[in-house]
Amino acid sequence: MRLRLKLAYDGACFRGWQSQPGGGSVQDKLQEALTRLAGGKRVAVHGSGRTDAGVHALGQVAHAEVPEDRGGPAFWQHALNAMLPPTVRVLRCTRTPDDFHARYSATGKTYEYLLWTGPVLPPHLAGRAWHVRPSPDLRLLRRAARILRGRHDFRGFAANRRVPVQDTRRIIRRLAISANGPLLCVRCEGDGFLYKMMRMMVAALVRVGQQRATTDDLRARLAGREGTMPRAVAPPDGLYLAGVTYGRRTQSG
């Protein structure tokens, strides 16, 4: 039986999503729990994509093949949540067709990035938001965000993972910035994201918002000209994988 899992986790507690030598990743924890519940037979977990150490998830999606005689999706969700640490939770567990793949069936992802712009970072946001000072100009942030929307070659906003990427073109369907007092949320929906692309875009937006770079600098970077804008990467603390989108047959994660 193939299970589809919707997961949330506190990234500060793990070495990222991807399985690591020595364990300590979200994938490792899930595989260990599923293997125990399957009576010792190794169960592999496949996620919609990686999140780095320190990056959080509100709607990561994964799938796994489990023995059908152990129980239905409700059993697996309850049992997993009883075994997993409290910093990772299975929010939803459903049976899915055998051709569903958490990564290859995905048609898009949504990320959120939290920025705290007040003079003092509240302790409950430590490790969960980027404390940005001086406070960026919201109008400039939104003006810069409009430049990044649409279909572009985002090679200037990708870190080197030592694995060549054949096509660095991506579509940003929506990029909006909302404000709740000093707490800003950058919400981005796209058909896919390059390695550290979201964090590099946020760093560039903040630089424009703080008037340390111009919108022309941002356009030059997007066109592949480095100019005066460094390839900075925003810290992982404020980044959240908010959701994964699938086709009409499989619906949203």
Describe the structure.
With 253 residues, the chain is α+β, with helices and mostly antiparallel strands. It folds into two domains: 2-104, Pseudouridine synthase I, catalytic domain, N-terminal subdomain (Alpha-Beta Plaits); 108-245, Pseudouridine synthase I, catalytic domain, C-terminal subdomain (Alpha-Beta Plaits). The protein is 22% helix and 29% strand. It is built from five helices and ten strands. A hairpin with an 8-residue loop joins strand 2 (45-47) and strand 3 (56-65). Helix 1 (26-37) crosses helix 2 (73-83) and helix 3 runs parallel beside helix 5 (215-222). The longest helix is centred in the last third of the chain and has 13 residues, at 197-209. The protein is globular, with a radius of gyration of 19 Å. The model has no long low-confidence stretch (mean pLDDT 94).
